[in-house]
Amino acid sequence: MQPELRSHSAGERLGKLHDVATLVARLAGARTRVAVEISWIDSAYDEASTLSRARFDDLAARASAVASAGVQALLACGEASPTALATLADAIEAEIGALERMLGT
């Protein structure tokens, strides 16, 4: 089940995705990722065009779905390998990077 993130600010959405990526990376024994700058993301989102915000919202929903499906699949497998965990963390981080680039970081 995908959590409803549209009620949160843009920065909070990326922050939540970052938290999932960090958790998965830690489970894989990897280093903690760099935190998302929520206030900057919110400001950039507020200044973006309507079309850019709609694209951001769509990509954020897709990133949330990727994270949710990945975590559910790993939980269904029981004990996930460090490689699978690291791959999921990297996929979520890639989505976060795309969202940040969309807002001009």
Written description of the protein model:
This protein has 105 residues and is mainly alpha-helical. It has one domain (10-102). Helices cover 73% and strands 0% of the residues. The protein is built from four helices and no strands.
Features:
single chain, 105 residues, mainly alpha, 4 helices, 73% helix, 0% strand
How are the SSEs placed, and which strands pair?
Elements: H1 10-27, H2 38-47, H3 50-77, H4 82-102
Helix pairs in contact: 1-2, 1-3, 1-4, 3-4
Unreliable residue runs: none
Number of domains as seen in the coordinates: 1
Q: Give the helix tally.
A: 4
Q: What is the SS-derived class?
A: mainly alpha
Q: Report mean pLDDT, rounded to a whole number.
A: 80
Rg for CA atoms = 14 Å
Helix content: over 70%
Distance N to C terminus: 30 Å
Strand portion, in percent?
Answer: under 5%
